[in-house]
Amino acid sequence: MSDFNNGYARPLPQTADMSVDAGLRAFMLGVYNKLALGLVVAGALAYVTGNVPEVQQLFFAQTADGRVGLTMLGMIVQFAPLVLLFGSMFFMKNPTAGGVNLLYWAVVASIGASMGLLFLIYTDASIASTFFITAAAFGGLSLFGYTTKKDLAPIGTFLIMAVIGLIIASVVNMFMQSGMLYLIISGAGVLIFSGLIAYDTQRLKMTYYALGGNQAALGVATGFGALSLFINFVNLFQFLLAFLGNRE
Fold it and tell me: Structure pTM?
């Protein structure tokens, strides 16, 4: 979704005026503000589902071998973001800012609720420290994507294909339960989503120029942009946590 028009990608200009632009700054600030608010909401939901016993037992349960598993509601919430994202590709042919915002908050809520599982696996201190490390990495990578003059589109195409492979490998490992494969997936995930943060930031910048001040289209782009960066941030955080987190 290069320009977020009708849900389909269209070629963006190969060059753009990279001079300081107040409109561009306002657009990017709108994306980052929505992202930040989404992270706050997701974090609050994760804390509630992971720490409030009455809510926790609705989503998570301990298996006979002592592992933490998902209840039926937990499984529904776990896979809801994928259903929402793939469903939007078919049902949002002519997206509006309101529709995209609804999609964004539905994804934020479902991801946030499912992330309560992390509080049952990792210590609060390691979750907090990894979050700040992720935030610092995100800031650096996004700044790189915003300022670089190198076209990241070819890299982005490869990374998007890599995400599909990552999803397939993750689903397979749900049944295999291989620790080695889990580490390989986590390492690949860190690299892939680090690259996507830079790529999506540059793509948003080019999208702003491509839309030429169309306020309705920019409203849609703001929602889709925040959604892309939110998913990248959350995935980078979870993959880093696999390496940096201390288990309970």
Answer: 0.88
